[in-house]
Structures are given as C-alpha cells and as structure tokens.
Specification:
This protein has 5 domains: about 90 residues, no CATH class; about 80 residues, no CATH class; about 90 residues, no CATH class; about 90 residues, no CATH class; about 90 residues, Alpha Horseshoe (Leucine-rich Repeat Variant). The protein is about 65% helix and about 0% strand. The protein is built from 23 helices and 2 strands. About 0% of the residues have low confidence. InterPro entries: ARM-like, ARM-type_fold.
C-alpha cells in the first residue's frame, strides 16, 4: 500500500532561509572578494540572493547533480554578469554552502535537470515559462532549445547512423555529454506515446504528485469514459474500487483500476489537485468533465484503438456504419478530433460516410475537422457534403469547405467554387480562388482577371487572384 501520493518537497524558509542568505552574502562579499560598499550590498540582498534562493529551492532535489552546478554557473554568468571561470567556482561553493546549512540533500540523478528542461521543451513550453518554472537563466534555456533543434535537423537530414559524426562545432556551447543526452532523449520518441508520457510527468511535477505517468494517464482515460456521468464522490470510488454505489462500473470499459494501490485519501488528494490545476472540471450539474488540455492528451492515447474499431466496422464485407458511429458519438469532442485526424490519414473513402453522421451543428470544431478530412481523403463521395458546407452562414466553414473542394480536385465542384468568388468575406474568396487554381479550369480566367484588376477588392484577394492566373496559364502552356 502506497502511504502518500503527495510529492515530498523541502522548502527553504524561516531560519534556514536566513542562514542560507547570510552564507550567500558572505560568499559573495568575503570569500570571493565582491564589493562591500552599501550599493553593492543592497544589490546582493534585494536582487541576487532572492533569485539564488528561488533557484536553490526549486532545484533542491538536484543540487548534488554536476549538471545543475553547470546550470547554476551559467545563471551566475549570463544573469548576473560574473565572469565564466569565477561563476563556475562560485556555483560550486554555493552548493557546498547549502549542503552544510541543510541537514541533508538527496542524491540526485546526474541528468535530472536536463530531463526537466527537455521535457518542457518537448511539450511546447516557451523559454520564458521554462525559465520561470526551473529558475534556470532564460539565455541558457534558449541556447539548449537552439542546440536541440539543430540536433533534430541534422539527425533528420543525415539519419540516426550519422550521430557519431556530428561535430560539436555545429552546436553552440554543447559538450559531448549534452550531445549524448540529446541523442538518448530523442531515441525515446520511438515509443509513439512518449510525448503523452512527458506531459503526464509534467502534470505530476507541477501538481506535486508522487505518481507514475501511466497512473495519471489511466486515470484520465477513466474520467473520459465516464465524463458527464459521475460526480466527484462517484469518481473517487471508480478510481479506487472500480465501481460506485450508484452502479457505475469501471471494469466494463477499461479493465483496470489505475489507483487501487493508493489510499482513499490519496485518491481524493489526486482529484483535488487535478481540479485545482484545471485538468478536470465540474459542470453545472455537478458532474466531472475533462478540461481541454486533458481531453487532447487522452485523445492521443485512445485514438489508435478507436480508429481500429471504426475501420473494422466500415470495411467492405463487414460494413456496419451505425456501429462505427456508435463508437464515436459519446466521445469527448477533442478526442473525436484526434480520431478524425487519424481516420483521414488512412485515405479510406468509407471513412467519409461515418464522419458525416457526426453532429456537426453541435460542435463547430468537429464540423471543420470533418470538412478537412474530406479534403484529405479526396473522395468524390464527399462532394455533396462539401458543397452544402460552402453555403454555410459561417465564413470559416465556407472557407474550409472551399479549400477541401480544391483538395478533392473534382471538376464537379467548379461552379460551387465560382459562386464563392462573390462571397462577402475575403478569406472565403481566397480559398475559392486557391481551389479553382487546383482545378485549372480555363473558363474561370475572365472572372479571376476581373478580381485581380479590381482596385476595390481586398489586396490579399487580388494577390492570390494574380497567382492563380499565372498557375492556370502556366499549366495550359505545359499542356
């Protein structure tokens, strides 16, 4: 039985904070010969020491990592202007001083600071946000991001086998140790769900949860399966026991109990943290729902299984469109979007029939995603659906439908696209022009020329009209 789901954290406050502050001031002014005039002392007390205390507290669990020592030296150099050699020695003394002032420091994984940094870069956090959350110097975070992007570019262009030939001169301040870490980190993405695991790790870190990423992901899947059906107390029973007094049964849908090894109080703490962090919500009726960021995370996990189930029911010889639709109809909208994306990639025309059954009027995002999928698949069976969407009152839907019609490339959509050249919204006209350009119909030249020469027309529309004119004419000359 796991006794506590809370992640144990050590804080620098009270007397300990005063002790470490005094030690830092002594290091800066006496041991390392810094200026002792009142202005310098005031700068150390009000700027440097508070920022160092924040950095040390956030990273207290990795203070003994040599990687963190290097990161702290970079902070002293880039953020406070200490010379590089001076900063390296000072960083080591700061860490040693904190170790003396605290009762004990945990043994740190060598690469844990980089693990956190690369995790946040991978899930799309901005350097300024990463710097705020880690207390690393923003210049250092941006440097790492630039090196990692260069690494991915090189390994994409030259292949994995060329890694050993990468020269450190192709990177900025990147030693062999960091280069090898980037390579090992990049290799982990061979697991198709590694990004979701990183996001779950970040949830655990931000929410202070002593949990495995798989436990968090499994719990979110449970919440998805029962979204809008259970209240908070029922959810606690589902996560802990697999059923609720109201008769909702978990094992029928998931076959697992993600938090059965935790105490009821720990499960309650997990749910409270997920609510306070905005990962799950309580709707107007008191039922639990997934927040957008959690639904997108779950969607990436569930999509492969759901896509397989849909495809099994729409293939010739085993066609059951209603069954395929039933798989999608009760899913969270963000999960449906992920499924639609994957279904579109299959290129199967049979997909279109089941997608058109989804309730487009209830969710604009799903409607737009279905239109996009029809264009990606490019099947003529979607023409009527797309032509209908091109007449929708919403300009965004009309524009997306025009783009999809061009992607389908069927001449039957020519007249529908021509009608949209008189649309009141420039964005719709632009997409209609692009669609006509893909069809390369000569009879459209006169209308397109009039748009290109109309000084009252939107400048972007005129620009695209000229490009489409050249496109159609150049295609004709080749023929």
């Amino acid at each position: 039985m796991i006794s506590n789901i809370k992640l144990g954290t050590q804080r620098i406050d009270g007397e300990l904070r005063e002790t470490i502050s005094a030690s830092l001031l002594k290091l800066l002014t006496e041991d390392w010969g810094g200026p002792k005039n009142p202005m310098a002392q005031n700068y150390y007390r009000q700027v440097v020491i508070p920022e160092l205390l924040n950095c040390l507290e956030i990273n207290l669990h990795t203070l003994l990592s040599p990687v963190f020592s290097d990161i702290l030296a970079k902070k002293l150099n880039t953020q406070f202007g200490f010379p590089p050699t001076f900063a390296t020695g000072l960083a080591g003394d700061i860490i040693a001083s904190v170790g003396e002032d605290t009762s004990s420091l945990p043994q740190a994984d060598l690469y844990e600071p980089w693990e956190r940094l690369f995790r946040m870069l991978s899930i799309g956090e901005a350097p300024v946000t990463i710097a705020e959350r880690t207390a690393f110097a923003q210049e250092y975070v941006e440097l790492i991001r630039k090196n990692y992007r260069q690494f991915i570019k090189l390994i994409t262009e030259h292949g994995q086998k060329s890694f050993e030939s990468f020269a450190q001169t192709e990177f900025i301040e990147c030693d062999e140790q960091l280069l090898h870490f980037m390579y090992k980190f990049w290799q982990r993405f061979e697991d198709p769900h590694y990004l979701e695991r990183l996001k779950a790790e970040d949830i655990a870190y931000q929410m202070g949860l002593n949990m495995e990423p798989t436990e968090i992901l499994a719990s979110l899947v449970v919440i998805h399966d029962f979204e809008g059906q259970v209240d908070k107390n029922q959810l606690l029973e589902l996560l802990k026991y697999g059923n609720s007094r109201q008769g909702k049964k978990l094992e029928l849908l998931t076959g697992c109990l993600p938090l059965q090894d935790y105490s009821y109080q720990d499960v309650e703490y997990f749910v409270e943290r997920m609510l306070s962090g905005g990962y799950i919500n309580i709707d107007y009726s008191g039922k639990i729902t997934l927040a957008t960021k959690s639904a997108q995370l779950v969607g990436a996990m569930l999509a492969p299984r759901l896509v397989s189930s849909v495809l099994e029911n729409i293939m010739p010889g085993n066609k059951n469109i209603n069954e395929a639709y039933s798989i999608l109809q009760d899913l969270n909208a963000h999960v449906v979007e992920k499924v639609i994306e994957r279904l579109a990639r299959t290129g199967s025309p049979e997909v279109i029939e089941v997608l058109q059954m989804l309730p487009q009027k209830q969710n604009k995002r799903i409607y737009l995603k279905i239109i996009w999928a029809c264009g990606e698949i490019g099947a003529a069976t979607a023409l009527d659906f797309i032509i209908d969407a091109m007449q929708h009152r919403d300009a965004m839907i009309r524009a997306r439908a025009c783009f999809a019609m061009g992607s389908i490339g069927d001449a039957s959509g020519y007249f529908a696209l021509m009608r949209r050249l008189d649309d009141d919204v420039p964005a719709v006209k632009e997409q209609a022009l692009i669609g006509i350009g893909k069809l390369c119909v000569r009879s459209a030249l006169k209308k397109i020329e009039s748009i290109a020469n109309d000084l009252n027309e939107d400048i972007h529309v005129r620009h695209i009209a000229r490009e489409v004119l050249e496109q159609i004419k150049s295609t004709e000359s080749k023929d």
